[in-house]
C-alpha cells in the first residue's frame, strides 16, 4: 500500500488488506473464493465459410469455447436451441455463428433477433454490422424499433438480412403489418431470442403469445424458422424456453469460457440493538464498502433493489466527490432515466470515465458496459439467478474480482447471509410463465385474428379455439364466414394491448421547478405508493415533492425540495375467494388454491428521516381503490388451533408467519417481490379460520401462487428453520418482524402455530 | 362457452357490465319470428342465386367467377356528363397534362384507373378490409364506375380475382391518398389471399399531394369532400359520410339488410366522379390551359402555391403568370408575399424579391410584426451581401433588432428566441462597423 495515498497497487492487495481489517471482517459471515477457470475450447467447426473464419480470426478468435461449438452443432443439426451462459462468456457467438454461416451460404435467408429492450438491440446491431463489414459481404443488419426513421423502414423491410427488434415492436408494428415484411417472413431461417429468462411472469406470458402469432405468420408464408435462445443461469432453462416458443429445444449448458478468480463476500451489518434484533442499515454499510472501493480507484457497480435505494446511495456516494466541481464519475442508473442519459452513462462505464455506478437491476441484463472490477449488492437481489447475473458484472477474464453482498434486515437476506451453502449449492430459481392466462390469451387471439383469419381446427393456446372465436363473435370483433373467423372491427387491437402491463400506462413525472420538463416515469402499480401527493420522489439524487397527482391523466407534478426525510406508503387490502380449484390437507392444516378478488387502496404514508430512518410523521393518501381478480393460494389453521390462542396472540402469530413467508417465497419463484403478495387474516371470510393468503399481482394469475401451493411443505419447513435459527430473542425484522409489530412473544407464537400446522405437539 | 364469458368478465373485474350484458343476451322476439334476409352468415356453399330485390333497387347484381361470387354495381356515364364545374369528356384533353407526374411515360385517358376504397378500419394493417372497392375508367366515350361489395370476408378472393384482371389493362392509378392508403391496402389483400405481391405495379397519380400543395392555408381542410365543394363546384346531397361506412357495413353483416348500404354505394360513386374531376383540374393546370376551363385562383395565397407547385412540376409559363397576378393583387397576406419572395431569392430574381419584402413591411399594419421582421432581416442581408450598401442594411437590421427586443420583453424567452436576438445584435454591430468603414 502506498503510505501517502492509502492506495493499494491492485485489487488482490486491497483484499488482503481487508482480510486484516477486523472492523470489516467481524461482519463477514462468509468469504468464498471461486477458483479461476481455464477456458475449455473446441476448434472452429469444419465447413465454416472462409470469410466468416477470417472475420473471426481477425477478431482474435481461432477456436471456440465448448458451449459455442455445441450450440453451433445443435443449430446446424436443425434443432431449436437454448444456450445457458453466465455474463460475459461469449454468448452472442452461440447464435451469431450459425446465423452468419447460414446467411453466407444463402444470401436470400433472413433472421430475426429479439431483445427485451431497445438498448440491447442497438448494442447487438453495432456488433453484428462490424462483423459483416469485416467480411466485406453484403449482409445488412438493422434495428427496427420506435426510433427507426420512417425513411429507412422500407429498406429494412425489404433488404435487411438480420432485423433486430424487441417483442413490443414485433407485437404492435411488425406482425400486424406482416404484408410489408413478405421478404422476411418467406425467407426467415432463424429467430434468435436473447435473455429468455427476462421473459417471465406477465411479460413472458405475453411474449409467449407474440411468438405463437409469429409462428402462425411464418407458417402462412411457408417458412419454418429455427429458434436459438440464450438464457442466464436459471433452474429450468429448457422447460422455460420450450414453454416460451412452444417447441422442443436442445439444451446447451457446458460453459467453456474462462473466468478470473472471484471473491464472493457475505457481509452482515453489525447488530446495534440485540434486544430488538436491529442491525445497522444496509444502505450505510453499502456506502462504506463502496466508498472504500471507489477510493481505491476500483471501478465498482452497486446494485440496489429499489429506485429509492438507488437514489439514496447515489446521494451518499456522490458526497465522496462533492469537492470536485463537475465531477461526473459516480452516476445512478435506473428505469426512470431517459434513454439518452442512460446511453451516456453506459458509454462512460465502457470508457472507464465513470468509476462508480449505482443501479437497479436495469443493468443486470446484457447491456454492454464492459467488465468492472467490483460489485456491491445492497441486499440480496431477490433471486439466486439475479445475484449471479449482477455479480457477473464484475470480473475480467484474467483479473480477480470481488462481490460484496450486504444483507438487509429482511428475513430472506438474513436467511441467505447465514446459510451460504443454500446460496452456493442450490440451483437458481425457475422462470415461470402462464401463456394461457385467459386475459393474456384472448388479447393475443384478437391480434392474431387481425393478422390472419382463424380457420376451424387451428390451435392457439390451451383454450378451445371454437369457444374463443364464439366469444369474440359475440363481442362483435370477429365475423364468421366460410368456416373462418375474420377480424371485423374498426380498431387496431395491438395498440390497446401492452406486453409490459405497466409500460403503456406509465405515469409521467413533470418537474415544475423551472418551467416544466419531463423528469421520468413510474409504472402504474408503483404510482399509488411512489408518487401520491406529498410523496418525496428522488431522481438522480435530487429530492422532489409531488404537488399534484393527476390520476386520470397519469401525470404527477413535482417541485424540487430539500428535506431530510423520504416517504413510504401503506396499502389496505381486502380479499374474497371466488372459486377453489385444488385442496390438500396436511396435519392440522388445510390448503387451497383458486381464484380470488383483491381490493387494494393506499391509505397513509409515513415520513422517514434520512440516515436515522425514524418515523417523523404521516399523512393520508386519497386515491381510488383498485380491484384485481387473480389466482391465489391460502392455508388455514384448525379451529382447535385458533381456540388455543387469544385473538391478539393469533394476530401476532399469523403476522409473524406472513412476514417470514413473504420473504422466502421468492426462493421458489423467479419473480419480483411485488409480483406476489401475502395477507394474514385471523378469521378469514372464506374459511372462518385463521388463514394466510398468497396471491399473484396480475389479473388471472401467472402461476406463482400455484407453484407455492405445490411446494407448501418445503416452504413451511424453511420458514420454521429461519425463525428458529434467528439469533434475536423475541422477534426482529430479520425473521417474524420487529416486536413493535408482532408483540413480545411474536416469535414464539409463530413457531407454536407452525408446529401445530405440521400436526406435532410442541 | 358461457363459461369463458363469465371467466372473462370476472377477470376484467366488471361485474356491473356482466349483469348489464346478461339480460339482453336472449334474442329479441321479432328477430326470432322473422326469417332473415339473405343472411351473410350463411356459408358459401349454401348461398343461392337469389338476391334480395332491395339490392336491385339500387343497381347491384350478383357476380360469379371461378372462385366464387360477390356483388357488383356498375354505372355508365356519358362523356358529356357534368359533375360540378367539369364535364367528364374533359378527361381526354386534360389527362395528357398529367404526364408531368411521370415524364417518361406517355399518357392517355384510357390508361388511367381511378380507385377509391371503403374499409372496415383505419390504417394499413393486415386486419383492415376494403369491403367496397370502387374503380372508374374511360371506355368508348363513356366513364364507367364499378363498385364491388363483399357480403362477407369469404367473398374477398373472388372479388380480388375480378379486380386483378381489371388492373392489367391500366398503367396509371388515380387516387386521393392512394399511394399510402388505398393501394397498399389492396396489395395487402392480394398477399393475404394468396395472389402474391406482384399483381400490378401502378404508376401513381395521387392527388392528395398536389391538393395539399395548392390549397393548404386557403381551404380549412384538404379532405376530398371539402376540396370538391370549394373548388370543383360539387355539392353532395344526403351524403353518408365516409367515416360512417364501417359501422353501416358491420350493421349489414349483423342483420343482412342491404338498404343502408345504398348510401355507402352513392358516397363512393360520388368520390369516384370527384376524383375524375380532380384529374381534370390538375390536368388542365399542367397543360397550362387555365383560362379555357378553370377559373383563376382568387386568393393570392392560392396563386403563389399553385405557381410553386407548377414550377416543381416543370411548368414555367403558367407559373410566371400566377406570380405576376400576385404582384398585382392588393390584399396579399405578408406571409404569402414572403413565400414568393423566398422563391425569388432562391431563383436569383432579386428585383422582385426586394419589392416583395418592401411590400411586406408596408403592408404589415404597424410595420412591426413577425413578417415585417423577417422581411427586414432579408433586406438587411440583401443590402449587406448583394449591394454592399451597409447604411441601408443597418437600417433594416436595426428595425428587426428593435422588434425582436420588444417581443422578448413581452414574451418568455426560450433558447431559440434568445439565439435569434443574439444573432441580430451581432448583425447590427457588424453592420455598424462596416457602415462606418464605408463612410470613412
Automatic annotation (TrEMBL), chain A:
SMART domains associated with the record: DEXDc (SM00487), HELICc (SM00490)
Residue ranges constituting the Helicase C-terminal domain according to the UniProt record: 288-439
Keyword ATP-binding carried by entry: yes
Gene Ontology molecular-function annotations: 3'-5' DNA helicase activity; ATP binding; nucleic acid binding
Keyword annotations: ATP-binding, Helicase, Hydrolase, Nucleotide-binding
Classification via InterPro entries: DEAD/DEAH_box_helicase_dom, Helicase_ATP-bd, Helicase_C-like, HRQ1_WHD, MZB, P-loop_NTPase
UniProt-listed GO biological process terms: interstrand cross-link repair; nucleotide-excision repair
Positions of the Helicase ATP-binding domain: 72-252
Lineage top rank: taxon: Bacteria
PANTHER family: ATP-DEPENDENT HELICASE HRQ1 (PTHR47957:SF3)
This protein's name: DEAD/DEAH box helicase domain-containing protein
TrEMBL record, chain B:
Residue spans of biased composition, Basic and acidic residues class: 1-20
Pfam families named in the record: RNase_H_2
Region: Disordered, residue numbers: 1-43
Domain YprB ribonuclease H-like intervals: 113-279
InterPro entries, sorted: RNaseH-like_sf, RNaseH_sf, YprB_RNase_H-like_dom
GO molecular function annotation: nucleic acid binding
Domain of life, per lineage: Bacteria
Alphabetical list of SUPFAM superfamilies matching this protein: Ribonuclease H-like
Record protein name field: YprB ribonuclease H-like domain-containing protein
Native source organism of the sequence: Paenibacillus prosopidis
Amino acid at each position: 500500500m502506498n503510505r501517502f495515498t492509502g492506495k493499494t497497487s491492485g485489487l488482490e492487495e486491497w483484499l488482503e488488506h481487508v482480510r486484516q481489517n477486523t472492523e470489516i471482517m467481524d461482519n463477514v459471515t462468509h468469504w468464498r473464493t471461486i477458483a479461476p477457470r481455464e477456458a475449455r475450447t473446441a476448434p472452429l467447426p469444419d465447413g465454416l465459410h472462409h470469410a466468416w473464419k477470417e472475420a473471426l480470426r481477425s477478431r482474435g478468435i481461432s477456436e471456440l469455447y465448448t458451449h459455442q461449438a455445441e450450440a453451433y452443432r445443435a443449430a446446424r443439426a436443425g434443432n431449436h436451441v437454448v444456450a445457458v451462459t453466465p455474463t460475459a462468456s461469449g454468448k452472442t457467438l452461440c447464435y451469431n455463428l450459425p446465423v452468419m454461416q447460414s446467411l453466407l451460404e444463402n444470401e436470400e435467408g433472413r433472421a430475426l433477433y429479439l431483445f427485451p429492450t431497445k438498448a440491447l438491440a442497438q448494442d447487438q446491431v453495432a456488433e453484428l454490422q462490424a462483423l459483416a463489414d469485416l467480411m466485406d459481404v453484403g449482409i445488412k443488419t438493422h434495428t427496427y424499433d420506435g426510433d427507426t426513421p420512417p425513411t429507412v423502414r422500407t429498406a429494412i423491410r425489404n433488404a435487411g438480412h438480420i432485423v433486430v427488434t424487441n417483442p413490443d415492436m414485433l407485437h404492435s408494428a411488425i406482425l400486424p403489418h406482416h404484408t410489408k415484411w413478405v421478404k422476411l417472413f418467406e425467407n426467415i431461417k432463424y429467430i434468435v431470442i436473447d435473455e429468455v429468462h427476462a421473459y417471465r411472469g406477465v411479460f413472458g406470458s405475453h411474449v409467449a403469445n407474440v411468438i405463437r402469432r409469429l409462428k402462425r405468420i411464418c407458417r402462412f408464408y411457408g417458412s419454418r424458422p429455427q429458434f436459438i435462445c440464450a438464457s442466464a443461469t436459471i433452474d429450468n432453462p429448457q422447460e422455460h424456453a420450450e414453454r416460451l416458443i412452444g417447441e422442443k429445444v436442445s439444451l446447451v449448458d457446458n460453459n467453456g469460457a474462462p473466468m478470473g478468480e472471484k471473491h464472493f463476500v457475505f457481509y452482515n451489518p453489525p447488530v446495534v440493538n440485540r434486544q430488538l434484533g436491529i442491525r445497522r442499515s444496509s444502505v450505510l454499510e453499502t456506502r462504506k464498502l463502496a466508498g472504500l472501493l471507489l477510493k481505491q480507484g476500483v471501478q465498482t457497480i452497486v446494485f440496489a433493489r429499489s429506485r429509492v435505494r438507488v437514489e439514496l446511495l447515489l446521494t451518499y456516494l456522490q458526497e465522496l466527490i462533492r469537492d470536485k466541481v463537475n465531477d461526473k464519475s459516480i452516476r445512478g442508473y435506473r428505469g426512470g432515466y431517459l434513454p439518452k442519459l442512460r446511453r451516456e452513462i453506459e458509454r462512460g462505464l465502457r470508457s472507464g470515465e465513470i468509476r462508480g455506478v449505482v443501479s437497479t437491476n436495469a443493468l443486470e441484463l446484457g447491456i454492454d458496459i464492459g467488465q468492472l472490477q467490483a460489485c456491491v449488492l445492497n441486499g440480496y437481489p431477490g433471486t439466486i439467478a439475479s445475484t449471479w447475473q449482477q455479480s457477473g458484472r464484475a470480473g475480467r477474464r484474467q483479473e480477480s474480482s470481488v462481490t460484496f453482498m450486504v444483507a438487509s434486515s429482511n428475513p430472506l437476506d438474513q436467511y441467505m447471509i447465514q446459510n451460504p451453502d443454500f446460496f452456493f449449492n442450490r440451483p437458481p430459481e425457475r422462470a415461470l410463465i402462464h401463456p394461457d392466462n385467459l386475459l393474456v390469451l384472448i388479447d393475443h387471439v384478437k391480434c392474431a385474428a387481425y393478422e390472419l383469419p382463424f380457420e376451424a381446427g387451428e390451435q392457439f393456446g390451451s383454450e378451445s379455439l371454437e369457444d374463443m372465436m364464439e366469444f369474440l363473435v359475440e363481442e362483435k370483433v370477429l365475423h364468421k364466414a366460410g368456416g373462418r373467423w375474420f377480424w371485423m372491427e374498426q380498431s387496431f387491437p395491438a395498440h390497446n394491448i401492452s406486453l409490459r402491463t405497466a409500460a403503456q400506462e406509465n405515469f409521467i413525472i413533470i418537474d415544475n421547478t423551472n418551467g416544466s420538463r419531463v423528469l421520468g416515469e413510474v409504472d402504474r402499480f408503483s404510482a399509488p405508493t411512489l408518487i401520491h401527493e406529498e410523496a418525496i420522489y428522488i431522481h438522480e439524487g435530487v429530492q422532489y415533492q409531488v404537488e399534484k397527482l393527476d390520476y386520470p391523466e397519469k401525470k404527477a407534478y413535482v417541485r424540487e425540495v430539500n428535506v431530510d426525510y423520504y416517504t413510504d406508503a401503506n396499502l389496505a387490502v381486502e380479499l374474497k375467494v371466488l372459486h377453489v380449484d385444488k385442496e390438500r390437507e396436511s396435519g392440522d392444516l388445510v390448503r387451497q388454491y383458486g381464484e380470488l378478488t383483491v381490493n387494494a387502496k393506499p391509505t397513509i404514508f409515513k415520513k422517514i428521516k434520512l440516515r436515522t430512518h425514524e418515523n417523523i410523521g404521516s399523512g393520508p393518501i386519497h386515491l381510488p381503490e383498485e380491484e384485481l381478480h387473480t389466482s391465489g393460494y391460502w392455508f388455514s389453521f384448525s379451529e382447535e388451533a385458533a381456540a388455543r390462542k387469544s385473538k391478539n396472540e393469533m394476530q401476532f402469530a399469523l403476522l409473524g408467519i406472513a412476514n417470514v413467508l413473504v420473504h422466502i417465497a421468492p426462493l421458489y419463484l423467479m419473480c419480483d417481490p411485488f409480483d406476489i403478495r401475502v395477507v394474514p387474516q385471523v378469521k378469514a371470510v372464506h374459511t372462518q379460520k385463521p388463514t394466510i393468503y398468497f396471491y399473484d399481482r396480475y389479473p388471472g394469475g401467472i402461476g406463482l401462487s400455484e407453484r407455492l401451493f405445490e411446494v407448501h411443505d418445503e416452504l413451511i419447513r424453511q420458514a420454521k428453520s429461519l425463525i428458529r435459527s434467528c439469533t434475536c430473542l423475541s422477534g426482529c425484522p430479520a425473521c417474524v418482524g420487529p416486536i413493535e409489530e408482532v408483540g413480545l412473544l411474536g416469535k414464539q407464537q409463530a413457531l407454536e402455530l407452525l408446529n401445530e400446522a405440521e400436526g406435532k405437539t410442541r | 362457452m358461457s363459461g369463458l364469458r363469465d371467466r372473462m368478465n370476472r377477470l376484467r373485474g366488471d361485474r356491473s357490465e356482466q349483469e348489464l350484458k346478461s339480460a339482453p343476451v336472449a334474442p329479441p322476439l321479432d328477430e326470432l319470428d322473422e326469417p332473415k334476409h339473405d343472411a351473410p352468415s350463411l356459408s358459401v356453399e349454401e348461398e343461392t342465386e337469389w338476391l334480395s330485390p332491395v339490392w336491385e333497387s339500387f343497381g347491384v347484381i350478383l357476380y360469379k367467377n371461378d372462385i366464387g361470387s360477390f356483388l357488383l354495381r356498375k354505372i355508365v356515364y356519358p362523356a358529356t356528363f357534368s359533375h360540378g364545374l367539369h364535364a367528364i369528356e374533359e378527361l381526354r384533353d386534360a389527362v395528357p397534362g398529367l404526364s408531368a407526374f411521370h415524364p417518361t411515360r406517355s399518357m392517355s385517358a384510357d390508361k388511367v384507373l381511378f380507385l377509391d376504397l371503403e374499409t372496415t378500419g383505419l390504417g394499413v394493417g393486415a386486419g383492415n378490409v376494403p369491403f367496397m372497392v370502387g374503380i372508374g375508367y374511360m371506355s368508348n366515350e363513356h366513364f364507367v364506375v364499378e363498385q364491388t361489395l363483399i357480403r362477407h370476408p369469404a367473398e374477398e378472393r373472388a372479388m380480388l380475382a375480378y379486380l386483378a384482371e381489371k388492373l392489367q389493362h391500366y398503367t396509371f392509378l388515380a387516387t386521393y391518398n392512394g399511394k399510402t392508403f388505398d393501394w397498399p391496402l389492396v396489395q395487402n389483400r392480394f398477399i393475404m389471399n394468396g395472389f402474391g405481391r406482384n399483381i400490378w405495379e401502378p404508376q401513381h397519380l395521387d392527388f392528395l399531394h398536389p391538393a395539399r400543395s395548392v390549397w393548404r392555408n386557403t381551404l380549412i381542410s384538404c379532405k376530398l369532400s371539402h376540396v370538391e365543394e370549394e373548388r370543383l363546384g360539387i355539392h353532395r346531397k344526403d351524403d353518408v359520410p365516409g367515416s360512417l361506412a364501417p359501422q353501416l357495413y358491420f350493421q349489414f353483416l349483423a342483420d343482412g339488410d342491404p338498404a343502408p348500404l345504398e348510401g355507402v354505394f352513392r358516397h363512393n360513386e360520388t368520390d369516384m366522379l370527384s376524383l375524375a374531376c380532380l384529374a381534370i383540374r390538375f390536368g388542365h393546370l399542367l397543360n397550362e390551359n387555365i383560362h379555357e376551363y378553370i377559373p383563376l385562383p382568387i386568393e393570392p395565397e392560392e396563386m403563389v402555391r399553385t405557381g410553386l407547385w407548377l414550377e416543381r412540376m416543370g411548368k414555367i409559363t403558367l407559373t410566371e403568370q400566377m406570380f405576376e397576378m400576385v404582384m398585382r393583387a392588393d390584399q396579399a397576406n405578408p406571409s404569402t408575399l414572403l413565400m414568393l419572395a423566398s422563391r425569388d431569392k432562391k431563383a436569383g430574381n432579386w428585383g422582385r424579391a426586394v419589392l416583395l419584402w418592401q411590400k411586406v413591411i408596408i403592408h404589415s399594419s404597424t410595420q412591426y410584426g413577425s413578417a415585417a421582421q423577417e422581411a427586414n432581416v432579408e433586406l438587411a442581408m440583401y443590402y449587406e451581401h448583394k449591394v454592399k450598401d451597409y447604411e441601408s442594411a443597418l437600417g433594416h437590421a436595426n428595425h428587426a433588432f428593435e422588434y425582436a427586443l420588444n417581443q422578448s420583453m413581452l414574451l418568455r424567452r426560450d433558447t431559440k428566441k434568445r439565439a435569434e436576438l443574439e444573432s441580430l445584435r451581432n448583425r447590427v454591430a457588424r453592420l455598424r462597423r462596416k457602415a462606418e468603414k464605408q463612410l470613412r
